[in-house]
Amino acid sequence: MKFIGIDLGTSSVKLLLMNEAGEILNSVSREYPISFPKPGWSEQNPIDWYNETIKGIKDLIKGVDKASIKGLSFGGQMHGLVILDEKDEVIRPAILWNDGRTIKECEYLNNEIGKDKLSEYTANIAFAGFTAPKILWLKNNEKESYDRIRKIMLPKDYLAYRLTGVFSTDVSDASGMLLFDVKNRKWSKEMLDICGISEDVMPRIFESYEKIGTLKEDVADELGLGCDVVVAAGAGDNAAAAVGTGTVGDSKCNISLGTSGTVFISSKEFGVDSKNALHSFAHADGSYHLMGCMLSAASTNSWWMDKILNTKEYGKEQSTIGDDDLGNNHVYFLPYLMGERSPHNDPKARGAFIGMTMDSTRADMTQAVLEGVAYGLRDCVEVARAQGINIQETYLCGGGAKSELWCKIIANVLNVKVIKPVSEEGPSMGACMLAMVACGVYKNVEEAVTKIVKYSKSYTPDEQIVSRYNERYKEFKMLYPALKDSFATMID
Hints:
- This protein is an alpha/beta fold.
- The chain has helices at residues 46-60, 103-122, 131-141, 143-147, 155-164, 171-174, 189-195, 217-223, 237-245, 298-308, 314-318, 362-386, 404-414, 427-438, 445-452, 463-490, and strands at 2-8, 12-19, 24-31, 43-44, 69-76, 82-84, 94-95, 151-153, 168-170, 180-181, 186-187, 204-206, 211-214, 230-232, 235-236, 253-257, 261-267, 279-282, 288-294, 332-334, 352-354, 393-397, 417-421, 455-459.
- Strands 1, 2, 3, 5, 13, 14 and 15 form a 7-stranded mixed sheet that branches. It has a 7-stranded mixed sheet with strand order 18-19-17-16-22-23-24, with helices on both faces. Strands 4-7 form a two-stranded antiparallel sheet.
- Helix 1 crosses helix 5 (155-164), helix 10 packs antiparallel against helix 12 (362-386) and helix 14 (427-438) crosses helix 15.
């Protein structure tokens, strides 16, 4: 039996073909455009997602016995607002997770409705990327679009709807909407009322590993697959990646170095960060997790390399940075190119290089970019540690994990053992495993993880480098508070 995992990312859709033993048989990636209509805005056309996914599936299964493909599922970029009208047509481009236009709406929710109420209703407070503030933004700024809404869904759920005709979402992705009662795994009536929408426009909720339906006949015919191919609900990209790295059960940690950066801590029990700096979400394994999210992680490095240094030779740029340089860099980088979520919750934050002198080098600045992301991840880890969570090791996935230097920096900045899975596929691999559970190959997600996930290399912190980074981190922590008011005045 074979299974398809679909990772609907921000820049591309990545598809994986895997057999029930966890062997990767093929992978395909297809890109689509992203639009930035105004500073801090971020949008995509959902139809692009679907078209490229269909093309990707065709490429993925070329030459494969179609009858052997039994199921598929998703990992998807979270929080994006997709709205359909009464004809099931997309009303406007999707407003993405890294869009920062909802400053006023978040202030209204956090200050007038109140953080305590929001936390009571959803276990979380308002962040600019979340879905509920976007709905309020539409109501305040695009009333005609708002009035036409008949279906509200998340990015991966648009794919699921087009493939199956089933209007659905899963608990992990729904958790990031600020419309979901995470503890009780149901829509929050209070939040729906605040946004002025009814439950009729919201999708049916499934656990991530549950079957939502099968392929529609026309879709199956186009792909050459059977109508009996099972489609599982899938998960938000971070929860799917956590499954793909084995971060299930209790008190395990996964760090993802993708477009965004996340610190993901699994838990058997429901819990809320008392400071609301970490998100409290449902997990794809049927339990819960805490998560800190920084909006720009590997994307900061690609910005630095591609747009500023104008090079694709990432490894060459990092090759001159050795162990003696780690913790000895006097240049700092604030990685807030799209604002920041955890722990600052500040869409007005911006990126900055600080500390350059006449002898600062290209390598110093390259190193500062990698370290700035690591310090941002440590900000999230320190919040978890303050809650009594003892993180001594973490799995690491995402495109940034391909850098040996970055892995070493993260291990030493966070003072944790960093473990890399054999597969770097993350969300698409987790999606395959969710499809396997939906098809009954494994009885639950934990069994699938035990059978499939394997690990390769690990990075152990060096005591001397850790000590140097501890001193540097103290300086880094002072920079955002010092610049916060200046950032605020830069925004129109």
